Amino acid sequence: MLSFDDQDSNQSIENDDALRFLLESVLKAADVSNRLLLFDKVRRKRAFRVQILSKIRIDKKKEIQQKLKLYVEANESNKLDCLSQSCQYV
Predict the structure, then answer these.
(1) Are 7 and 47 in contact (CB under 8 A)?
(2) By the number of CB atoms within 10 A of the CB, which of 1, 8, 12, 68 ranks highest?
């Protein structure tokens, strides 16, 4: 399923859950910065992929695939071929 313009509200919910999960077990203030770095590492590429996919138009498939390559791990590049109505990758 492709993401669309209202995907940002879903991202907010995901970010909230991810932050809650990462921070709920923090016992020392010094650990907060490490957890926030982990959050950034985990969420940044996904956020970029969702933003790019939310701009898909039928005539822009190749352009979108090129942009997505920046935010997809090397072992996941086969998932870029799924830009169709049945795409499940984000």
Answers:
(1) no
(2) 68
pTM of the model: 0.54
pLDDT digits (tens, 9 = 90+) for 28-79: 998 999 999 999 988 888 888 887 777 766 677 777 778 877 777 767 666 6
How far, in Å, are 2, 16, 19, 35, 51 from residue 6 at the CA level? 11, 17, 21, 28, 10
Determine phi and psi for 56, rounding to 5 degrees: -65, 130
Q: Is 56 helix (H, G, I), strand (E, B) or coil?
A: coil
If you count them, how many residues does the chain have?
90
Boundaries of domain holding 37: 7-82
Phi and psi, residue 5, nearest 5°: -55, -30
